[in-house]
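STRUCTURE REQUEST FORM
Protein name: MULE transposase domain-containing protein
Source organism: Lactuca sativa
Requested output: structure tokens
Priority: standard
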Amino acid sequence: MDGNNQILPIGYGICPKETMDSWTWFLEKLHECIGDVEGLTMVIDRAPTIAVSIKNVFPNAQHGLCGFHLIGNIVHTFGKNKQKTTILFWNLVRAYKITEFQFY
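Status: completed
Returned output:
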């Protein structure tokens, strides 16, 4: 994310499938460009191949899950109250204190 809270692409690659080899290749190329960055955090969807590849190529990086991917999965699974579920989810995501989180 940039300073305006917008996605800032730093690279892209074209691969036939999202496999472990594809993600490892992409992340190795990214590593060649940016090196080891202190405090590097990557936000990903829940694909296990990405998480494993990050651990292999950027072992000191943190990674978190993308809220938009998570809410899509939640709404798909618990679609009855889509609007209520979405509001509750984003309230939880944006809770900065444990008491706020527990409130929801």
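Reviewer notes: The chain has five helices and two strands. The two ends are 26 Å apart (CA to CA).
Form closed.
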